[in-house]
Amino acid sequence: MTMKRIDDIYRPLNERVGDWKEVERLLSFAEMKEQTLRCMNCGEPFCHAYACPLGNLVPDQNRAVAQGDFKKAYALLSVNSDFPEFTSRICPALCEASCVHGLDEEAVMIRQSEKLIIETAFREGWVKPCPPAKENGKSAAIVGAGPAGLSAAVTLRRRGWAVTVYERRAGIGGLLRYGIPCFKLDKTLIDRRRKILEAEGIRFVLDAEIGRDVSADYLVRRFDAVVVAIGTPVARDLKIPGRELGGIHLALEFLEGQNRFLAGEISAPPIDAKGKKVLVIGGGDTGSDCVGTSIRQGAASITQIEIMPKPPKERSSSTPWPLWPYMLRTSSSHKEGCERRWALNSLRFLGEGRVEGVEVEQVGWELSGEGRPLKFLSIPDTKEIVKADLVFLAMGFLKSGGEDVLPHDPKNGIWRAGDCAGGASLVVKALASGKKVAAEIDGTIGA
Ligand SMILES: Cc1cc2nc3c(=O)[nH]c(=O)nc-3n(C[C@H](O)[C@H](O)[C@H](O)COP(=O)(O)OP(=O)(O)OC[C@H]3O[C@@H](n4cnc5c(N)ncnc54)[C@H](O)[C@@H]3O)c2cc1C
């Protein structure tokens, strides 16, 4: 009751904007011990039983950390989580939003504790490959090596399946590697995990696009089960006049280019924000990643605009505890320097050959009784030009294609998992989806 949650989990701002290393620092054992002591060991732990898609045993893990028993904490974490080094860095921590402590004070720090547990486990050599004791004679092809595909692969392999993962890119990880910036997730962590997966017997076939390099028919004939986990590769575009001008890009073109450059796959980032007036259209996480990337590339200025109204500073009454709160979120990238504006609709891009600005107009939102935005109307005489010579469109993703080639069809041995099954979401949900689908496959045809 006397201890407060630690707010300061970031490296100093001036230092971090000058490099691409993770912005968050690893908390010390002493800090984490104190933080986990804040856990009340609730009779009904919403963090574990309601919020975490993986069902992590949060109160038990917290108790083990508070007792300084990291080996036990790691054993508990491993019960449900196969990739804690990813979630402990980039999960929005649905668990913390449902923490009972969060009702009257600040929630217990759960994500940071997970990070210290898994990093301690790797350092101490406790993270070992777990190949199956017995092969079951069945084989599965996984299409896509993002979190959903990797999660399905590990679950099936540990149950005795021979697993081959086909990935169209040169590296595994999906958006973990090519979308999410290095300053949120260090890519060497994906390589570290890959070695363990391979030692468990999972086979990766890279640079292999299903439908182009390998046919879908071949997979269906050759394997007992096929898991399609290809994500949602089609980004939502903004088809307003002037869209054809130079300097307007989908957010992922920018983020992927920078990630591939840092990985040494290409010699220079294909889109460079150095000295540019950057405008990010879309106020979500992908937009925020464009902000942090532009800052590190040396942009002259960065503005992020959003058509939705500014969310409330505190949890909205439309999302009472323990729901995931609708509220204003300020990321580490936002704090690094960017102007944020809300309730602005983009009407047309301006410029000759290259973009020079965007004409925007303010919109008013009709709100539900609980304050949820329902529909918008233009506010007359509020048009203005936002100047920009580089624009990133970060407005979400359309539901994946590929259904025509490999539809969800369990009767014919084809399952879909992750974002391509449920729409663009979160890494932790993709992991849970891959695991659930794998368990379903094993239960149906594994025996
Ligand atoms: C910029 C950005 C930042 C994000 N930040 C966060 C965050 O901080 N926290 C969070 O929880 N979530 C975040 N997300 C969401 C998260 O990354 C996704 O929800 C998650 O990666 C989905 O996993 P997936 O395995 O379903 O798909 P993906 O990660 O998209 O993986 C799909 C894989 O399939 C491969 N593939 C596609 N087609 C084929 C084919 N025909 N043949 C072979 N391989 C194929 C792709 O190359 C890719 O590797 C972010 C998303 C974006 C775009």
Q: Can you describe what's shown?
A:
The protein is an alpha/beta fold. The protein has three domains: 13-124, Alpha-helical ferredoxin (Fumarate Reductase Iron-sulfur Protein, Chain B, domain 2, Orthogonal Bundle), CATH 1.10.1060.10; 139-233 and 399-446, NAD(P)-binding Rossmann-like Domain (Rossmann fold, 3-Layer(aba) Sandwich); 248-393, FAD/NAD(P)-binding domain, CATH 3.50.50. It is built from 17 helices and 14 strands. It has helices spanning 13-16, 29-37, 46-51, 58-66, 70-80, 84-90, 94-97, 111-124, 147-158, 175-178, 188-199, 216-222, 251-262, 285-297, 332-335, 419-422, 427-446; strands at residues 139-143, 162-166, 203-205, 225-228, 248-250, 277-281, 301-305, 339-341, 344-352, 354-367, 373-378, 384-387, 390-393, 414-416. Strands 3-2-1-4-14 form a five-stranded parallel beta sheet, sandwiched between helices. A hairpin with a 1-residue loop joins strand 9 (344-352) and strand 10. It is globular. The N and C termini lie far apart (50 Å). 42% of the residues are buried. The site of flavin-adenine dinucleotide (FAD) has 39 residues, from helix 9, helix 13, helix 14, helix 16 and helix 17. Residues 90-91, 143-149, 166-169, 174-175, 179-180, 184, 209-211, 229-231, 233, 252, 255, 285-286, 289, 418-420, 424-428, 430 line the site of flavin-adenine dinucleotide.
